[in-house]
Amino acid sequence: MSAHVARNAGGRCAAVVACCLLAVAGCTPTPEDVTTPAAQARGWQYQLQGRVDTSVDAVTFIVDGFDVDAATVADLRDRGRTAICYVNAGALEDWRPDADRYPDEIVGDPLDDWQGERWLDIRATDVLRPILAERFDTCVGKGFTGVETDNVDGYSQDSGFDLTGDDQLRFNRMLAELAHERSLTIGLKNDLDQIDDLVDEFDFAVNESCVQYRECAALAPFTAQGKPVLHVEYELSTDAFCPVTAPLGFRSIRKPVALTAPVEQCPAPV
Known about the structure:
Helices cover 23% and strands 22% of the residues. By secondary structure, it is of the alpha/beta class. It has a single domain (21-261), classed as Alpha-Beta Barrel (TIM Barrel). α5 links the parallel β11 (204-208) and β12.
C-alpha cells in the first residue's frame, strides 16, 4: 500500500478499471471498451460505501465484491455499464466472512491507520491461492467481468514479514493467473515500481493520486500498450489535475476519500 492511498471507513479503497471482456483465443482478455481512453464519452465510478448509485453516468464501476449483490451487478450491466469486483488480496480484513480462513502465522502487522486490517505473508501461496480463487469465483457468480485487487505492494511496506520484490511479483502474477483462468480482466493497483515487470500480465491500471505525488510518468507502460489507466485524485481539484492527465490518456476522476457516490469526472477529450 502506498502511503497516500485513500481508504473507505470499512476497509481499503479499491480502484480499478475495466470494461467489457474481449475474449480472444490464446490471448489475455482485455477490457474492450476502455482500451482507447481518449475515445471515452463517459468516465468511471469508484464507489465502496453506501448503496451503489447505478444511475451515475460512467462506463465502468468498481464496487465491493462482498457487499454488492448480483442484482446490482445485473442492473449495471443492463445499463451498459461494466462492473469490476474489488477484492483485498494482500491484507486481512477482519470483518469479512472468510476472515477465519487465514491462519495466524500468515497474518502480519496492522496497516497504518486502517482498523481491522493486517498485512499477509504473500509467500504463503498454498494458503492464499484457494481463498482468493473462491473470492474470484464469487465475483464471477455475481456477474462481474473484472477484478481489482488491493494491497499488492506489501513488499514495500512494514508488513511484519521479510518480503522481497520477487515475492511480490510471484504473488501478483498468481492473481493475474487466477483472474484470467476465469475470463476476468484484472487491474494493477498502484505498485508503481513493478509496472515494467507486470504490465504484460495485467489488463489495466488503477492509480490513486499520481498527480499529487508526481508519479504519473510511471504509468506510461500501460498507455504505451493501449491499456487503460483509471486514475483518481482526492485532494486536488479537477482544474489542477485534469489538464495533466488528459494528454496522458488517463480516465481521471475526483472522489471523496470515503468513496461514496459523488464523483467529478474530467471532461472527455475532444
